[in-house]
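Input record (one chain):
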Amino acid sequence: MNGLFGINGLSGYFLSVVLLLVIVFILGYLAITTQRNQVNHPYVIENLNTLEKKSINNAKHYKLQ
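The corresponding structure, as predicted from the sequence alone:
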């Protein structure tokens, strides 16, 4: 057998593939739920004329609904 079904063999390979697929599906699910949440609660820019091209203070001009 020589480690064919050990962690370094076939079972380790299948375990790593399943683990990676689970991680991909979890991250995809979280991304979809985050996008759905943001669609239902958009933000509004209060004063569009006071925005500057590059400024940290631009964060003060929007609020979440």
